[in-house]
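Quick check before the chapter quiz. The format below is the same one you will see on the exam, so make sure you can read both the input and the output lines.
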Amino acid sequence: MHGGTHIDVASEEFNAQVAQLDPLSLDVELRDLHRMNAAADVGALARALGDALPTQQRIAGFTLTECLAAMRDLGMYLGSLTRHDVVAFDAVPDAAGPFELLGRRTRMVPRDTVYHYTCWNPPGGRERLYTGDPMERGLIDAVRTCVPELARAIEIGRALEEADPHSAGQAGAWASFVECVTVVDTVMRAVLANVSHEFFARELRPYFEDVCLAGRTYMGPAAAHVPLFLIDLLLWASDGGSEEYLAFCDELVPHTLPDWRERYGEWRGRPSLVTRFTAVALGEQPLSPEEARHVQEGTRALGEALRALTAFRGKHLVMARRAYQEELRVYALGSGGGSTELLDEIIALTRRTRTRIGPAAAR
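Here is the expected output.
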């Protein structure tokens, strides 16, 4: 593939490169998208999607970043038609081929994802928006802030996962890991303060519905697809998650990045970091004072990371319960396919896991 094959959402340079591209020359047309949506002008939306479709030959000449930018922009029309109860691939049959080809070229699902909608969405005057509401911009910016931090946490976590719990020199890595994970809680606090649950439930959520292509269903660009579930898997869920939560994670995985699908495959069947560190800390094998200190540093950092995740999900649960209360609810499940009951269960499991490591951290 021209221009490389690695998708690095932790790289501000890579994200900015995709964001600045307009391979289908849709900058002007997409400024009118929120007006077409407000008018529910499905005819205009279908025509716009049809007119924007690149040929197979043209896609073959795109770089990786151009493919990502093209999928981002076509996806805005896809989500808009879906929101107005139009099956886009029936209304515009020629659209199926380009979506499938762009998915193959990028090794991602054949539709736009949360990464297209946030990380690779240009901020400012060129921002692609379904509604044009400042609250939509705020949500995009919140996820745009979180994803690179979570990407860094995954890379740090991979190094920690491969290291021996006894080994020296990990204190800095643990501190960076906790700092990255804590960002999601900080950002969620701003979302709760600045985005109303009514806006999300009634105005924005309908754009994130599933689509069916070639007999398979693909979820919309939901924030649930950010790699927080991968952090859970690494920390505690690979051997501490419920069957329901792990099944939910399995459904999310196809919608993430190629490298993260590989991490998921690696971590899904391995002992979690919590299990490994508590086994060493509370095990019968004696530790030298230095080894004990390194293990204790790790277990304390794990506790801090779990606390940050619990705090984030507590805020998320507040917003989810408000958005999906009976009088507002349009959909039974969140845009990532999860229920408020599942979110409640994840919080309980995370708290229980944090309790498990308390004696190890204190030893």
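If your answer matched, good. The chain has a mean pLDDT of 90.
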